[in-house]
């Protein structure tokens, strides 16, 4: 499948020949973003699901910002206006697909009662749900099915779509129960990182807070967030910088100092590496 090597791969039913007998699949794709890209308000006619594989991404809907990390799925309902947090998609790797609403008989060849059950489950779905990285295999299977020339292509596509929907709407309770204590400690730590962007701990200090060895902490942190600890902290610091640039009248130097940078030049260098433009350029683009 092209998406495994390419930084971007997309199937679009409007631009390409739709999958025979699977009109429910509207869009499917994969993106690997190296630097932040603009993503302004837009909407879809169907349900959109985005699974983050690596990195961290934020999404804005109805004035609320939703954070997603590796293994999280963010979804929007038909007609909902949404955009990337602060109008951008942060550097990350993610998969997505869009399906028509399950409100008709024979939707994905399901009996009406079963499609209604799916519709009810989607209405109750949390805006962000952690389903883990195992679901990536389902996305790859869907991509392989779309690219297939097999006479069973439509059946494989339909099965892959249904598998992904079930993985999203049916929470895997065992997956979360295995590491509840550690996960709660990590959540508290991530909240502190977000609340104290000027904080500059090392891995040993972070590991001590959650009471595990530095090596175990590093591996677990990267698995939990999709990023190494220092990269994650830097991204959160720059996210706070975006908020300050947008919502305050502070100078670049004042903002750099408040975030613990030694100089405005260093701040500008880090900001451009992550966002793709300087703080001044980003502020002017708002």
UniProtKB/TrEMBL annotation:
Q: What Gene3D superfamilies is this protein classified in?
A: Homeodomain-like, Jelly Rolls
Pfam families assigned: AraC_binding (PF02311), HTH_18 (PF12833)
Q: Where is the HTH araC/xylS-type domain?
A: 187-285
**This protein's UniProt keywords:** Activator, DNA-binding, Transcription, Transcription regulation
- InterPro entries named among the record's database cross-references: AraC-bd, AraC_XylS_family_regulators, Homeodomain-like_sf, HTH-like, HTH_AraC, HTH_AraC-typ_CS, RmlC-like_jellyroll, Tscrpt_reg_AraC-type_HTH
Q: Which PANTHER family match?
A: ARAC SUBFAMILY, HTH-TYPE TRANSCRIPTIONAL ACTIVATOR RHAS-RELATED
Which protein are we looking at? AraC family transcriptional regulator
Q: Which organism is it from?
A: Paenibacillus chondroitinus
């Amino acid at each position: 499948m092209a998406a495994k090597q390419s930084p971007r791969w997309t199937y679009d039913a409007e631009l390409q020949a739709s999958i025979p007998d699977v009109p429910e699949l509207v869009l499917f794709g994969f993106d690997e973003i190296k630097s932040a890209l603009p993503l302004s308000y837009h909407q879809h006619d169907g349900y959109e699901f985005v699974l983050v594989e690596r990195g961290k991404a934020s999404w804005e809907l109805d004035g609320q910002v939703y954070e997603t990390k590796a293994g999280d799925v963010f979804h929007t309902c038909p007609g909902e206006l949404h955009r990337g947090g602060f109008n951008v998609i942060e550097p990350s790797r993610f998969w997505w697909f869009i399906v028509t609403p399950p409100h008709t008989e024979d939707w994905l060849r399901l009996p009406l009662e079963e499609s209604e059950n799916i519709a009810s489950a989607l209405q109750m779905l949390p805006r962000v749900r952690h389903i883990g990285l195992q679901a990536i295999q389902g996305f790859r299977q869907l991509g392989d099915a779309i690219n297939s020339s097999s006479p069973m292509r439509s059946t494989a596509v339909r099965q892959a779509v249904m598998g992904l929907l079930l993985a999203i709407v049916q929470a895997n309770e065992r997956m979360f129960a295995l590491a509840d204590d550690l996960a709660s400690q990590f959540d508290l730590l991530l909240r502190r990182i977000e609340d104290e962007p000027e904080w500059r701990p090392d891995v040993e200090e972070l590991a001590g807070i959650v009471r595990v060895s530095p090596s175990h902490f590093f591996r677990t942190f990267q698995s939990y967030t999709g990023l190494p600890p220092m990269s994650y902290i830097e991204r959160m610091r720059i996210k706070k910088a975006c908020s300050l640039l947008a919502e305050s009248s502070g100078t670049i130097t004042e903002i750099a100092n408040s975030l613990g940078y030694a100089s405005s030049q260093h701040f500008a260098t880090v900001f451009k590496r992550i966002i793709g433009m300087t703080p001044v350029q980003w502020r002017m683009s708002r």
